[in-house]
Amino acid sequence: MWRSGLNSRSTTTAQALKEKKWDALVIGGGHNGLTAAAYLARGGLSVAVLERRHVIGGAAVTEEIIPGFKFSRCSYLQSLLRPSVIRELELKRHGLKLLKPTATTFTPCLDGRYLLLGHDDERNYLEISKFSKYDADAFQAPETLHWDSSFTYWMRDKLEKSVFWARCLRHIMVLGQKDMVNFMDLLLSPTSKVLNKWFESDILKAVLAGDAIVGSMASIHTPGSGYVLLHHVMGETDGDRNVWSHVEGGMGSVSTAISNAAIEAGASIMTNAEVSQLMIGNSGTIEGVLLADGTRVCSSIVLSNATPHRTFLGLIPRDALPEDFLRAIEKSDYNSGTTKINVAVDKVPWFHCCGSNNTEAGPQHTATIHICSESMDNIGSACQDARNGLPSKRPVMEMTIPSSLDKTISPPGKHVVSLFTQYTPYKPSDGSWENPTYREAYAKRCFSLIDEYAPGFSSSIIGYDMLTPPDLEREFGLTGGNIFHGATGLDSLFFMRPAKGWSGYRTPVRGLYLCGSGTHPGGGVMAAPGRNAARITLRDFKKHHSW
């Protein structure tokens, strides 16, 4: 699926890198780095993207690990990609095709019941009524609050555009009191408190709570965990709010479409080009980068799509940065409890709660499937296990089956299953992820638990690919295995991201900018950091060159 010109650095490419002084360099060919490159090139700058791996995409990547099966190895669904980026870069013309699921969430229960939610309000009411008529009535109120109010539209716009808090406060002053109070309650309270106030049935609360713990080590009882819930419900697919879609060809197709737009605008993209050091002149100004193979690439502007930890503690000499800034970066929270398992199976899973064993994919298979997630207690216990240093005994799993809609990623009749599992500590107290037996034991635990809901799942497995927190760090550069380039707690959001006073994409090193998820507005396949950083860079470039 990759363009032949993107797969390797030829001798000619290496020579061209050395001989040219670029207007801007981008470290990392993840979706944000590619987005930044596209906007910079469209702004008239000569741009080179330097990607360490053999493929572009970062965590938004598709790879054929098992012959015939194409895995979205890290990110696995799309909703947060900003409509402005899709429109401005013409990503659909460049090959982006979103596949809207028939249903949105499916939660099977061991007692034979299930909760299947979708796009039809009346059908959702009947589904929730199976567990609580009170909740069916109440469900409409928070749904209206979160994705229909003018406040939410305002928040979505402000998260996309980096603005100072003083300006934000002026907007808050004109909000209705109810909207503002409800939002602050969601932002500051534990998710469990918010959901207990809204609903009574455990299964509905657990389904909604799942979005508040994605990619973190936070518990549903952690104050401020409601923000992650808000972060994950502000997306859309083709104008339909809070719909998470599959992408034809896997998540790598998002990155490929953005790279196509960047190349069309004139950007150059090099893979197998690992940056080992930033070159900084005596005046403290960026002069370019040094690659791992010794190649020096010159530019007075560098945008880093690497994590702030990797950028400032791995690529820059300590004496080039202020001590207070370094301390803030060193203290940043990169804890993650995520292990991603991508599975090739010879048939679609059958969930016994759905009745007859149909071999065809149904609406439930297109949805986000919640395994071991039918109760708040199980989510809490899974987190507590990890806080005790142990992989969860009953991990909370989000299962998706993209091949239920996308026929391009698996052989006929066979399927790709994605398992986003929590919680797994970076350094378990009872073993090591470097031990193959230990790794296999965790994978088999997950598969056996799925068997409780979908009998025969384990026996349908052809092979699998597993990424623990250390794997995510080593292979994809995600410090601590954190998928957001840093925790999304209240102390690391907005003007605090990546450090207090440095949310505006510029850094203490003149000419160096951040364009990844470690800066405002945060993680997910959103592309807002890349777009915003490029706009700031272009503004500075034009100001400097107008002297």
From TrEMBL:
Annotated compartments: Mitochondrion matrix
An example molecular function term from Gene Ontology annotations: oxidoreductase activity
Domain Amine oxidase per the UniProt entry, residue ranges: 215-364
Gene3D superfamilies: FAD/NAD(P)-binding domain
Annotated Gene Ontology cellular component terms: mitochondrial matrix
Superkingdom of origin organism: Eukaryota
Main location: mitochondrion
Protein's job: Probable oxidoreductase that may play a role as regulator of mitochondrial function.
Subunit structure: Interacts with COX5B; this interaction may contribute to localize PYROXD2 to the inner face of the inner mitochondrial membrane.
The protein's name: Pyridine nucleotide-disulfide oxidoreductase domain-containing protein 2
Originating organism: Gossypium tomentosum
